[in-house]
Amino acid sequence: MAAAGGRSFDLWGVPYDGAASLGWPGSRYAPARVRQALGWMVMRVQDGRVYSSDTQRLHSFGEDVLRDRGDTNVVAHDLMATLDACAAAVADSVRQGRLPLVIGGDDSLLYGCVKGFHDAHGGTIGILHFDAHLDLLDESRNQGRYSQSSGMRRALELPRVSVRHSIQVGVRNFNFPSSRRFIEDAGLAQLPAAQFVRLGAEAAVRLIRAQLEGADHVFWAFDIDVVDPAFAPGAGAHEPGGLTSRDVLECIRLLAPYCEGFNIVEVNPLIDHHDMTSILAANLAYHMVVFGQDAAPRD
Ligand SMILES: [Mn+2]
User: 148 alpha carbon to ligand 1 midpoint, in Å?
Assistant: First the structure.
């Protein structure tokens, strides 16, 4: 990773929602809105530092710590070309020793992001998957093989992605029995939303860290619908009973040092309420940069 002075991030937008075959399309508008909301946080940097009211400490925020690489080369009519472009962007950042921070776009991008991360890194890859849904659909007539419901399934097929070092967090309500069968056969760890709430964020983070331990590299795939619709109404689909915005901000603060890539998908400005979901997404991204600058110590 990056030398002394910590790790640096590349922000990429992927304004694509062509694979939003279920739920509400509109996440193509998220990169612009999230960037706009990020401006409110970046402007608080003074002399290369920002003050965190949560930690009550100053945190460095150097000039190069967050570089906006613009939008990836989305091909509006072609999902596979869009996934390839997303993968290429992520791989380019990794090869430059920087951490990709991708703002989607719909959740089909999970596969594109992990593919690029996998191809540019050696060793085993763990996936930390925050989502209300499982995204383990193999294939269907309506959605095909690559869709917003299949990202995790396809990503786990990549040769060095390790199911043993992956976990799905915040899953809830109802899904396909075939997905349950896959979870059991593959041995994919689950931390359902109800269990997360019972544990509280700090204990949940300990459990998540134990699961990721031993992976050479961890990619964090974050579907905004892991957050309850009351806190994040601008999402591609609503699943009641989710995590709070406080919960996920705490998770980012505590887990950012363990991850080397991050995406936020399914933020949907078309059904948002006064940008509150875009503002949450911008905060998540900003927390990732502030608290992810220093890698966790390796044993
Ligand atoms: Mn989802």
Answer: 8
